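pinging the channel bc i need a second pair of eyes. not urgent but kinda urgent?? the chain im working w is below, pasted from the shared doc
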Amino acid sequence: MRKIINPYRSTENGKCFGCSPDNEQGLQMDFFEDGEYVVSQWEPKTHLSGFKNVLHGGIQTTILDEIACWVVFVKCETAGVTTALNAKFKNSAFTDKGKLTVRGKLISKDRRFATIHAEILDPDGKVCSEAEVQYMIFPQEMAIKKFEYPGIEAFYE
């Protein structure tokens, strides 16, 4: 696996709820590239539970959207915005049973849209939730000017 650097950390966008290591209330996700996947090994916090130590569904949806965003950054080499997210909850994701694996991969891409499959797996590899996420993606020049996309080189050492 190859570590993906968060180039937004020292910018105005450096307090992202999903990915900023400096947002104490956030998810503090970090990312790796593993072949066709972007992956995060994420330790759930107990205050993010809903019922009986089950990770809240809204938080799961946020995590699925976040990994999809990083797929757009790294695999599409641009920025974008979520236009649709269809989540399915299959098994409980617990906040007290260890790290969850979050992963996403690019399913399709055309000039304007990218479709990403994202999933959260429990420590035993069982799928807890998954989503098909559609992003409107921007031409790289627009992503750089309007959305501070730093270029693919900024994501790696």
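so Residues 18 and 27 are 5 Å apart (CA to CA). and DSSP finds two helices and seven strands in the chain. — does that match what u expected or am i reading it wrong
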